[in-house]
Amino acid sequence: MKETEEIKQALINFRNERDWEQFHNPKDLALAINVEAGELLELFLWKNPEEANREKVKEELADILAYAFLLADKYGFDIKEIVMDKIRINGEKYPVDKSKGSAKKYNEL
Q1: Distance from CA of residue 64 to its chain's centroid?
Q2: Dihedral of CA 53/51/29/27: which sign?
């Protein structure tokens, strides 16, 4: 079993054992990602990046990834495929010769 599928199945099993699928519609999963991303951001608020509590960063990142995996499942997306497609698209938008070392957006290169 692919690692991403193993993770997704573990999340689905955890969710189903608790009868939580009823709450996991695409809208609410997207909202949950946003809420957890806000909690991740809060760990860095008013601090230098190295001052953030690594364990709490790990926990919030895991929450974000978990909801993202469940959202991908709702739409039947293959996680590896959609990430690899996005890397390819970004490679076209940000060619190395124009974007290397630059923080400019693709339409400003």
Answers
A1: 5
A2: positive
pLDDT of residue 66: 98
Q: Can you list the residues of the chain whose pLDDT is less than 50? A: none
The pTM (predicted TM-score) of the whole model is 0.90
48 with 89, same domain: the answer is no
Whether 51 and 41 map to the same domain: the answer is yes
Could you give the number of structural domains in the chain?
A: 2
Same domain, 88 and 35: no
Domain range for 109: 78-109
Residues 106 and 59: their CA atoms lie apart, in Å, by: 32
| Cα–Cα dist 17/37, whole Å | 26
Q: What angle do CA 14, 38, 36 make, to 5 degrees?
A: 0
35 and 84 share one domain: no
SS3 of the chain: helix, strand, coil, percent, to 5: 75, 0, 25
pLDDT of residue 1: 60
d(CA 22, CA 10) in angstroms, rounded, equals: 17
Tell the residue number behind the tokens 């709490």, with chain if given.
56
